[in-house]
Amino acid sequence: MDSNLFDNFDETGGGDGGQAPWALRAPYRPHGRFDLMLVPRSEEWEDDREALAALERIEREPWVAAMERDGGKVWLRLVDGWIEQRGSALEQRDDAAGDYGDLAGGERFALNFWDANSTKALHIGHLRNLSLGNALGAALTQAGGEVERRSIICDVGRSMGEAMAGVVKSGRHTQPGSRGDHATTMDDLKLP
Q1: What sections of the chain are H helices per DSSP?
Q2: Distance (Å, rounded) from C-alpha 140 to C-alpha 109?
Q3: 122-129: long-range contacts at Cβ-Cβ below 8 A with a sequence spacing of 24 or more?
Q4: Rounded Cα distance, 117 and 155, in Å
Q5: What are phi and psi of 20, to 5 degrees?
Q6: In Å, what is the CA distance from 14 to each residue of 20, 40, 165?
Q7: Dihedral of CA 160/165/171/174: which sign?
Q8: Is the separation of the CB atoms in 140 and 148 below 8 Å?
Q9: How many whole angstroms separate alpha carbon 70 and alpha carbon 59?
């Protein structure tokens, strides 16, 4: 298999021209026995003939060493030889010249990380997310990918608090038949 693992998976696990019934994901935490997890796109996948047929096709792929169902989760173990072959190909590249520009060439990536809430204190986890997000973005850029980095500062907490205080101050929330969240003038929303 010369193509990207995820592209190959989409071709193998795809349905009849529609959306594939499975998505391939890295596990949230490293798993001792498996490398990847399959996420169903349908809650009733165990009764879906197309989803089950796709699982059978995926399991027959030469790069799959094992597949295990664990409740609603499906885990995959990649063939060790495939991993060694891909790793060896990367090691053979000219490190001095930084010859990695074709790994993600022509691919587009949107990275969303950090998302700090400005109404709360920042902590070391925010620094970790910034570091990892920027490192991943730099690696994808070096590999030839077009990367858009998004780091949103979430400040809705203060705005929502001010809006709720305005509704309470107006007293309209206690009036029978009134929708207290509908202000009639901007003065209704002003704080004391």
Answers
A1: 5-13, 49-59, 80-91, 124-142, 156-170
A2: 8
A3: none
A4: 6
A5: -65, 140
A6: 4, 12, 51
A7: positive
A8: no
A9: 15
Greater confidence (172 vs 106) lies with 106
What are the tens digits of pLDDT across the range 37-51?
888 888 888 888 888
How far apart are the C-alpha atoms of 63 and 8, rounded to whole Å? 10
Q: Where are the domains of the chain?
A: 5-81, 96-150, 159-189
Cα atoms in the 13 Å half-sphere on the side-chain side of 182: 4
- Using alpha carbons only, how large is the chain's radius of gyration in Å? 25
pTM, rounded to two decimals: 0.48
Q: For 94-131, what is each residue's pLDDT tens digit?
A: 555 555 567 778 888 888 877 777 667 778 888 888 88
